[in-house]
Structure prediction request, 233 residues.
Amino acid sequence: MNAVYEAAQGYASTLSRAVGGDKANEVLNRLFDKWPAGSKARLFSLGGAFNGLNQAKSPAALPVAERLVAEYEATEPAAVATVKKSFSKLLTSTPGAQAPNLVGPSPDGETVDLKDLRGKVVLVDFWASWCGPCRKENPRVKKLYDKYADKGFEILGVSLDRSKERWVQAIEKDGLGWLHMSDLQHWKSAHAAIYGVRSIPDTVLLDAEGKIIARGLRGQQLEAKLAEIFSGK
Prediction:
């Protein structure tokens, strides 16, 4: 079966570069359908293709992952779990994809709901009080917030803290006057898991409809993108 996996991986990667996402999915689905439904061969073919497309950063990876999960979640939970780990990051990194919702407690114990921010451009900012690079980035983010907040820009800070006291102290010390949430579960944070966060700082920029504009923007890249979005406003 390793041969099936490796062949599908190489073929999918090459195909996506040659014909693009939609056509690649059309061709690959015909390939997958040649194997019996529920078979190991189809599973390995799907898995190899997903890995090849994911490494190539092809938009065709998402439909392949969705098909693998749909067909094998009940019978191959371990394989599906592995794909889902990559799938969550892919799902929240693909421009135009609807961002998963986040709901969690604010420092004051109020419920914060990401979907309530529809109508605004939102930066979901994963950070923590103990994260040096995050704290270093905060003054730059604050300048952008101050510049664009009255033009329809909002930030949702999602903390991977464990200590509520340190979380709140960092918010106050850094002057982060935007919305915040945390389940105080450190790297076991459910919010981080939903977005496939593996390191911080990490950001996801959303449009007014809650769709992903870009992921991982910081510093000058974030500044340039916001200037582009809000030009003329």
